[in-house]
Amino acid sequence: MLKKMIAALSIAAIFSFIAPSMSEAATYHKQAISTAKKNIGVKYTYGGLSPKGFDCSGLVKYSYKKAGKTLPRTAADMYKKGKKVSKSKLTTGDLLFFAPNKATRPTHVAIYMGSSKMIHAASSKGVSIASTNNSYWKPKYIGAKRI
After folding, report:
1. pLDDT the model gives residue 16
2. Which of 33, 43, 82, 142 could be bridged to 147 by S-S, CB 3.0 to 4.6 A?
3. Among the options 120, 126, 137, 141, which is catalytic?
């Protein structure tokens, strides 16, 4: 009986340490997406880091900074951070990386919103939501990272 009680207390203690960090992750991912959504329609500006104009990595960096996380400036440098995630295990807030002709160095980054949707700053539409399965982005996908 005493062993069962000690085991139960140990498990409860472990979850008390894990659960806050799990909810914190969910919270900052949602905050980053919320910030990005507030900027829908902002024009694309090469090198842009603010609501006056964003490029893709500028939007991601800005959105995550507002959520309390610091990311590198470029898509290529962001790709070096975080934990690799398979496409089948994507969750809200994961970063999606794209490159022309299946190159290994990404030139575009977006935030996964769930349900095959992403938010990003596209040179053609500015800050907008797109399908990860559309004919333009799908063949350029090279991987995802969880921050």
Report:
1. 43
2. 82
3. 120
